[in-house]
Amino acid sequence: MDTQHLIDTVKKHPEFDRVGMILCHNGTVRATSRDGRRVKGLEVSVDHDRLNHIIAEGLRRPGIVAVEVSIAENRYLPVGEDVMVLVVAGDVRENVLSAMQSMLDAIKKTATRKIEHFE
Description:
Aldehyde Oxidoreductase, domain 3; 3-stranded antiparallel β-sheet; 6 strands
């Protein structure tokens, strides 16, 4: 998973001259679950049809020019490992922040499933 590669891909977009902001989310495996239990790692699976739908919806949002995502799937990820990088590029801050929030929530809630491994 290479954040810089995703950013470089966005910068090659034919309409990159419309971009005023690139926003990146880099999710990692943390040592505790939301309920406070100690985590030693996790596995993530992805519904690619749903993910592609979310990306397409994001690209239809006002001002959004490009979206790139990389998810480490179907393998064990220890604490500290990168899980997902999401890059959203668009015209102005308000549009990019809103799109990032919406897409990130949708990906985590409807396109991915994680299995946490506890200590």
